[in-house]
């Protein structure tokens, strides 16, 4: 039998499971109904009858949506729409040892880009009290901290304060997620390349720019502060 033109008479098969389809159907339903966080969704039996599927299938689909943080069960109220915590979802899958090298490198780059890019937010919100707090953090760092390329404890304290100053809660949560991944890359040897030159701006140098400089100068200083990390990635 001539197989030419077979595709012309066959249609592609939808291989998604029934639960997958119901899950997507529910999300589309929530969007079309313009549900907002706090709104109560129909009961399980009503959803099952409307879609012509069993309550077991609907229940499993709703469980998936709860895991994603899209809905939650509230006592004496029912199941409501909620605003997903994006950083919490990311944290659940951010297991360094289970990520491939390409993904780890992408995450590594993401942290570098974020910290260089948030200069305008920092300058917009920073207060004299913030400067005092940053200098207090610097004062408890180890001696010769300018030579420390990466120390997870002190990086979290100093850079965490910068994220706090930026007044962006999502960025602040990302910092908590990304820094351990960043540290893992050094421990695993993935970016353990020798450095040909050592251009480095210390934490104190960054604070000096915050006192007297501009967002552009801070971006440049932060780039130099992270220079050793970039060199390990690209040289």
**CATH architecture label name of the largest domain:** Up-down Bundle
Largest sheet: number of strands, sense, barrel closure: 2 strands, antiparallel
Q: Which range does the strand content fall in?
A: under 5%
Radius of gyration: 25 Å
- Which spans of ≥5 residues are poorly predicted at pLDDT below 50? 145-149
- At the fold tier of CATH, the topology name of the largest domain is Four Helix Bundle (Hemerythrin (Met), subunit A)
Kindly report the average pLDDT value.
83
Name the helix and strand elements from N-terminus to C-terminus, one letter apiece.
HHHHEEHHHHHHHHH
Distance between the termini: 58 Å
The overall number of domains is: 2
Write down how many β-strands occur, each being a DSSP E stretch of 2 or more residues: 2
**Name of the top-level CATH class of the largest domain:** Mainly Alpha
| Arrangement of strands in the largest sheet | 1-2
Based on secondary structure, the structural category is: mainly alpha
Shape: elongated
- The tally of helices reads 13
Helix content: 55-70%
